[in-house]
């Protein structure tokens, strides 16, 4: 049984950047040499989120628009009095910061049209970090 | 320390089928012989989601209705131009594809009125797969 | 490789209590003596949820208000006919019951302004339990 740890780092352009992490995750699975186990990932920071989505331009646009509809920017939030990114925090907490994905026979168990993504919800460019731990054998 | 891997497979009737996975998960815990550890599950595919809910008819109906209210079907989504299931993708990404549940003393740590569920959000019948990995001792 | 299991227990005041679990999680990481691995936590019960948020008064207030906007209390839900907490169930299932966080070099990988929280969404005071399992070495 092994544990493989790494921090993924990348830059985002702010509101709303959706980064496809799938090939980065697959590289880590390969480097870990773990054949069967779990990849656990979580955002470090409170204005980013992790989920899966079909990484297709139209769906990504729809996703940005539904977030704006559900949690509109600048809708009189109290946190906006100290920093103008209240909506970023709310969206991040609703989508959630963590993802846990199975690895079977050295392969991350995702569908063909399903990608693991980091969603940058903050209002400005950020250097982003995602903690990844792979456990298995 | 052991790793137990399995793919759960079942058919869904489309929009919106909520499948109680609890007893399937409990069977896998039992087969794994793991007494203390974690069960990690994730949907394979981008129009399904995992969460927990009280598996009671009225709450399930309420859940379907709140999804339709929050992310209405056919609300002018761009992805609908290529496939009429944009809302399915959006709902799935918001709820999330993965679940990680503790196993203590050979028991999945869920409440009496709390069931682990797969939510099929797609518009048609589908053959569905959920990857499950149990790690522990 | 080790597994460390514990149930966190605490009381909540009902609608909506947001409990900062970060220091409790850090204590468990410390007690487990696991340096590299994963902390997996899940709510036991169907009217609570786990996520991360900046534990700052204004954001917490904004979060309570956005939940009321998205899933209003008493909006004609069917489950309210048997128990007046349908909205609690719906909010809990949307946010999600589980969280998995990396531990690298004995430290939980969270940002400075990011706390792991339990959100009590039920309408009354409750005794709450969160199952935690730490796996690693």
Describe this structure in words.
The structure is a homotrimer of 137-residue chains. The first copy, chain A, is an alpha+beta fold and 137 residues long. Chain A has a single domain, classed as Jelly Rolls (Sandwich). Chain A is 26% helix and 40% strand. Chain A contains three helices and eight strands, in the order E-E-H-E-E-H-H-E-E-E-E. A five-stranded antiparallel beta sheet of chain A has the order 1-8-3-5-6, covered by helices on one side. In chain A, strands 2-7-4 form a three-stranded antiparallel beta sheet. In chain A, a hairpin with a 2-residue loop joins strand 5 and strand 6. The first copy, chain A, starts with a strand and ends with a strand. The mean pLDDT of chain A is 97. Chains in contact: A-B, A-C, B-C.
Q: What multimeric state do the chains show?
A: homotrimer
The greatest interface between two protein chains, and residues involved on each side, is: A-C, 34 and 36 residues
Number of strands of chain A: 8
Helix share of residues of chain A? 25-40%
What is the radius of gyration of chain A?
A: 16 Å
Let me know the CATH homologous superfamily of chain A: YjbQ-like
Strand order across the biggest sheet of chain A? 1-8-3-5-6
Question: Which architecture name of chain A does CATH use?
Answer: Sandwich
Question: Count of DSSP helices of chain A?
Answer: 3
Task: Give the class of chain A from helix and strand content and strand pairing.
Answer: alpha+beta
Tally of structural domains of chain A: 1
For the largest beta-sheet of chain A, the strand count, sense and barrel status come to: 5 strands, antiparallel
In whole angstroms, how far apart are the ends of chain A?
A: 4 Å
Q: Mean of the pLDDT scores of chain A?
A: 97
